[in-house]
What does this fold into?
Amino acid sequence: MKKRTCIGLIIAVILSILVIGIVAGQSMQSTSSSPPATLPWVMKTVDAPSGGTAGQYNSVALSPETGKPYISYYDATHSELRLSYPVASSGNCGPNNSWSCEVVDTSGNVGQDNAVDYYYNSSTGTRKIGISYYDATNQALKVAVWSCGSHFCTWHISTIQTTAGNTFSSTGFNTSLKFDSTGAIHISYQTRNLFADEVLMYAHSVNSGGNCGVGTAAGKWQCDSVTTDPDAGEHTSLAVSADDSIWIASFDSSSGSTGTGVVSICTWTGSLWYCTNIAYVDGGFPALSVDGNNHAYLAYYDAANGTLKAAEFVGAGDATANCGYNSVPQYTYRCDVIDDSIGSGVNQMGIDLAVDADGHPLIAYEDASDLFGISVLNIARPIDAYGQISGNCGPQVGILHQWQCDTLDNATEGGGGGHLHEADYVSTAVNSAGLVFVSYYEYDDYNDEGEGRLKVIYQQHTVFLPMIVK
It folds into this structure.
């Protein structure tokens, strides 16, 4: 019988290669014209100690060079500061050991209230990671800096300020850290006093002549107060704009004119701090970002009303301005309710904000409104980021909502059973291609002891292979 040669279509199974550009550091462009905000999400558990807790106070930064994420967080089981990042091999955590979970500092109870940033100078090839954090053992503000020399990279840990031995004062709470364009470090934090006002503090690295720093770091830091009040600096968020201006958002639970707290933004004028009260609310948890045009965006929590709110600088005289008095006084910000039901009276509300390359803010946040006690991870973005004409949340123009709010983790992975709580602590970043990365803490209260783990969810490009024709 004559042997037949099959000629025609060999239909290849439609394969999608999931290129995790934001993790692998690839700069692949999407083959679709769809906005980056519409691209799919991938969820992973990074650090899940059996019977233990890791992932609180997590903070994420992306390498400007590769897009690779670096996550600092607190390991409560071992009372240590850790850093996690994806690796091609020799990992010790994450799916198939595809991540490295590295101990940064284990000298005492260290790592709460941490914040991370990544610095890269393309001209010099300089790379640095900076992590600010609280040292509970020594009542101190500390910083760990990873930097690379000509042959290898090392960690250098410094104490910036300490109140060790002082039973009436402690410093280093609620830290937020950013590098400026020169690689200098800027940190906001809180000092607490038993018989005096709390202080919102600001520290930055200097070559010499500073007024703080301990041991070999003496004189290498300048530490100054920004505001002083009975509850100043309860939560802080620092941003450095493209021109290296310093902005600090903070919450003070006792300075509101109506008996509530106040969320404010302070900026350094070159000679003094100028502070603008944005909103009088309880709750706070402000998250601040400033774009390349010195345009500020702020997300915060209104605990009394159980809402997520956002403020955007629009300038004096703008018809939409409704909050943030300047010295005239005139409103200079527009404040909007983004999600009107995320749970009221929550003591630890996860909120973070980033701004994409097109100037669209995005907010990752905890929604604790479920009556059965679980909380979920949500994301909110303006409809312009999706190319939509209407959303499902945020302010309305006519009948059309101007934001889109979606759930990323609904607390049912692995069965859930009504015992999972997502995003008490959450951090987000967006790369130059518009892909979003979110790190967050998941807590399982099924056992009396409870278990906590570090999780991530991120967007990825999908590339479809062409059909093979023979």
Summary: The chain is about 0% helix and 55% strand. The longest strand covers residues 110-121. Residues 21-24 form the longest helix (4 residues). The helical segments are 21-24.
